[in-house]
């Protein structure tokens, strides 16, 4: 009788543990926690004025996911992630991924550094969107601490004309500085911040490998004319 009771208690504990493990990820990405997470890590107001309505699911080839401020290494995020959200089949979406902590969170004088930008995405099919800025992994310098990497998805009903924006390859580095999420969204009237997520990362050995692959871009000189701090352009800070 006592043995049976012990077994029953152990079984109940096991069931509870499995339930907790099964729901842990969904709890982390509970939409009710979006605003609190964006505010507690100061993504609001450093990057955007308001948090998105819901989480975007961000899954890297390494098997790791963004979980609202968790820590990932540059090695783990070296490849573009799979990003999904509850899309409206009649809408289009524009995605950006930006680092507001350049060169560091304590000294963000180059804020922001744009890592990825894709416009006019039908549904969740990023491959069918219009790539303005090719994905570039973390180039966080040694000794600059943790950087916040913020991924934002904006919903819009009409196709937007991004033909005036520069096309930046994954071999271009410094020209990505001084990007302004606020100026970008104002320019294109992106008022519906539909989904988002973020994580933190800092230097590991892969950063040096990635930096060695970067070269001066053909259009870097013309882009640098835009890249003056706070000059009011998309690549010019607020």
Automatic annotation (TrEMBL):
Q: Which CDD domains match?
A: PEBP_euk
- Name the Pfam families for this protein: PBP (PF01161)
KW Hydrolase (keyword) present: no
Q: Which UniProt keywords apply?
A: Signal
* Gene3D superfamilies membership: PEBP-like (3.90.280.10)
According to the UniProt entry, the coiled-coil residues are: none
What PROSITE patterns does the database record attribute to this sequence? Answer: PBP
Q: Which domain of life is it from?
A: Eukaryota
Give the residue range of the signal peptide: 1-25
Query: Which family, according to the similarity comment?
Result: Belongs to the phosphatidylethanolamine-binding protein family.
Q: Which PANTHER family match?
A: ODORANT-BINDING PROTEIN A5-LIKE PROTEIN, PHOSPHATIDYLETHANOLAMINE-BINDING PROTEIN
Q: By what name is this protein known?
A: AGAP013427-PA-like protein
> Organism source for this protein?
Anopheles sinensis (Mosquito)
Q: What is the lineage of its organism?
A: Eukaryota, Metazoa, Ecdysozoa, Arthropoda, Hexapoda
